[in-house]
UniProtKB/TrEMBL annotation:
Residues in the signal sequence: none
Protein name: GTP cyclohydrolase 1
Similarity annotation: Belongs to the GTP cyclohydrolase I family.
Top-tier EC class: hydrolase
Sorted UniProt keywords: GTP-binding, Hydrolase, Metal-binding, Nucleotide-binding, One-carbon metabolism, Zinc
Cross-referenced Pfam families: GTP_cyclohydroI
Boundaries of every GTP cyclohydrolase I domain copy: 15-192
Domain of life of the native organism: Bacteria
Subunit structure: Homopolymer.
Assigned EC number: 3.5.4.16
Keyword GTP-binding found: yes
Organism in which the protein naturally occurs: Thermomonas beijingensis
Molecular function as annotated in GO: GTP cyclohydrolase I activity
Length: 198
């Protein structure tokens, strides 16, 4: 047993909670196959919800201004993410597309994917995650505009409840010129639909 403490909850308490749920589901947490499950679930939670220990703004702190005069749109698309809905704690799996129009500052592209990771690995609603990503880029780069489109499949809708497979939720947050200028917005939407690079 470890003395791992997160948010004032010890690993022992977390594992006990998993045992309670196993029992509540109708099984016996003391049977052999389930003995290690609380430990595994606690470790899985560290991975699934690792975003609470990540600082999205810190990833964006390192910016560059020397880009050879490049002042056109930068797009990073098809960033896969795994999240969990805050209503049912069920997985949300999908892709994020991010674009911005630099106003002097750019950021290493991997940092955009790290920002997605930091917000995805939490309990989320897709609308909030979309806005958090856009606002983070806006804060760090003060660009002329930012666009974020998120596509997600919500397992709380496929494996339970309404049981609808193949449904995607699409959310977007547009700031600055992406919001005000229809041509910028449609350029972004066209770029995220182009065939992939490989
Ligand atoms: N807007 C939004 N809704 C979400 C998201 N993730 C899950 N939901 C929805 O949150 C809602 C919660 O509704 P409730 O009526 O409180 O929960 P419920 O009784 O379990 O609802 P059902 O899923 O319809 O069985 C459901 O409609 C979910 O589909 C999300 O990211 N954004
Ligand atoms: Zn849900």
């Amino acid at each position: 047993m470890t003395d791992d403490i997160r948010n004032n909850i010890s690993r022992q308490q977390a594992e006990a909670a998993v045992r309670t749920l196993l029992q509540w589901a109708g099984d016996d947490p003391t049977r052999e196959g389930l003995l290690d499950t609380p430990r595994r679930v606690a470790r899985a939670y560290e991975e699934w919800f690792g975003g609470y220990t990540l600082d999205a703004d810190a990833y964006m702190a390192r910016t560059f201004e020397e880009v050879g005069g490049y002042d056109e749109m930068v797009v990073l698309r098809d960033i896969e993410y795994e999240s969990h809905c805050e209503h049912h704690m069920a997985p949300i799996i999908g892709k994020v597309h991010v674009g911005y129009l630099p106003a002097g500052k750019v950021v290493g592209i991997s940092k955009l994917a790290r920002v997605v990771e930091a917000y995805a690995k939490r309990f989320q609603v897709q609308e909030k995650m979309t806005a958090q990503i856009a606002d983070c880029i806006q804060r760090a780069l003060q660009p002329r505009g930012v666009g974020v489109v998120v596509v997600g499949a919500h397992e709380c809708m496929t494996t339970r409840g309404v049981h609808k497979r193949g449904v995607s939720m699409v959310t977007s947050k547009m700031l600055g010129s992406f919001r005000e200028d229809a041509r910028t917005r449609s350029e972004f939407l066209k770029l995220i639909e182009m065939p992939g690079g490989r």
